[in-house]
Amino acid sequence: MNKVLVTGATGMIGSSMIEQMLMDDIKVTAIIRPNSKKKRNLLTHQNLDVQECDINSLSSLRERLTAGYDTFYHFAWDGTYGDSRNDARLQEQNIKNTLDAVNLAHALGCGVFVGAGSQAEFGFVEGALSDQLPKNPVTGYGIAKYTAGKLSAVMCERLGMRQSWGRIVSTYGPGDNEFTMVMSSVIGMLKGERMSFTKGDQIWDYLYGGDCSRAFYLIGKHGKHGKAYTIGSGKSRLLRDYIIAIRDIVNPGLEIGLGEREYYPNQVMKLTADIGELTEDTGFIPEVEFEEGIRRTMEWYRSDNK
């Protein structure tokens, strides 16, 4: 791996992965939205080229970039939360964007295409998530992710490229969106707010964002064609244990309202990852324990909001 393209480059996973690649002297072209406020998440580096391009216009980059790339990472995706997850037309556009990304990767000489999937591709299932389990996505977002993964594999096969797909379970860390459970809890508790939660009986698997980005980095290097890897920590805890751990680190002694909120309709109660195949193929082993990850996240938020 010498020269890489990354869409969704300013997000938590994309920006962290790019930082790791730059440390390894890999040349990176980061594709970001025009006038993105998150551009500040990217380092200024001699080996980093930033290209502004709307995600719906990826094909226009053929006129700006020359061949010589080897790997393409596609993280960009619209409609990841709220009602937009079931916006059928928006999710359909995401599928088209993924296939446009494959075509761009091929035009620029890439032999490897890596896409970012989601645990939402499984729907409601029992057991640790692995590609061996059946997939029955129930949201537009999950359906689109699953379709994009399958169709991009077909297209890559036809174009003579290796395609690998990484299904993210749950991540957190510096650069995360403020509306996620972990980040909103860190922010609220830093402010001394009394926060309300469900009983927290869900069994969950959280992976530090830097570890997740390293997993994708390794998938690009060592992943197998057509495989969809589950990306998680491989460890699970009750959600309330995570919440209490956040409180104990961020604001010890702060009262928290466990059990004061109802579960969402059709609440997923168990998300655990089987990372055996990921580890076997790529050598990936998570390094950052949850408590340490929360400390890093807290310090990042403090320094970013001075």
Question: How would you characterize the overall build of this protein?
Answer:
With about 300 residues, the chain is of the alpha/beta class. It has 2 domains: about 5-170 and about 205-230, Rossmann fold, CATH 3.40.50.720; about 175-205 and about 235-275 and about 290-305, UDP-galactose 4-epimerase, domain 1, CATH 3.90.25.10. It has 8 helices and 11 strands. It has helices at about 10-25, 90-105, 140-160, 180-190, 210-220, 240-250, 275-280, 290-305; strands at about 5, 25-30, 50, 70-75, 110-120, 160-170, 170, 205, 205-210, 230, 235-240. The protein has a 7-stranded parallel beta sheet with strand order 3-2-1-4-5-6-10, with helices on both faces. Strands 7-9 form a two-stranded parallel sheet. The protein has a two-stranded antiparallel ribbon with strand order 8-11. α1 (about 10-25) links the parallel β1 and β2. The model has no long low-confidence stretch (mean pLDDT about 95).
Biggest sheet record? 7 strands, parallel
From the N-terminal CA to the C-terminal CA, the straight-line distance is 37 Å
CATH architecture of the largest domain: 3-Layer(aba) Sandwich
Q: Would you tell me the overall average pLDDT?
A: 96
**Annotated CATH topology of the largest domain:** Rossmann fold
The CATH class label of the largest domain is Alpha Beta
**Which blocks of ≥5 consecutive residues have pLDDT under 50?**
none
Strand content: 15-25%
Helical proportion? 25-40%
> What string, H for helix and E for strand, traces the elements in order?
EHEEEHEHEEHEEHEEHHH
Radius of gyration: 19 Å
> In total, how many beta strands?
11
